[in-house]
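> forwarded from #structure-qc
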């Protein structure tokens, strides 16, 4: 029974992280970006960067893809 609670706690944490990323406020969590100088950060759109990370790095699958499954 304790495994159910652990699984539920992990699910809640993942949901909270997804909400932070999808709302565009998670750029500070990305390696490299959070260490960049303010001048370098000004070159990027934080909202798009955060949403891209939330969607797995791509906004839509390329033509002809099978959902990430390779033959």
């Amino acid at each position: 029974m304790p495994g159910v609670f652990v699984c539920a706690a992990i699910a809640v944490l993942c949901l909270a992280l997804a909400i932070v990323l999808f709302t565009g406020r998670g750029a500070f969590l990305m390696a490299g970006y959070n260490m960049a100088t303010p001048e370098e950060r000004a070159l990027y759109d934080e909202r798009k960067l955060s949403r891209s990370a939330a969607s797995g790095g791509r906004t839509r699958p390329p033509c002809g893809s099978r959902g990430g499954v390779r033959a």
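QC bot note: The mean pLDDT is 78. Residues 61 and 67 are 7 Å apart (CA to CA).
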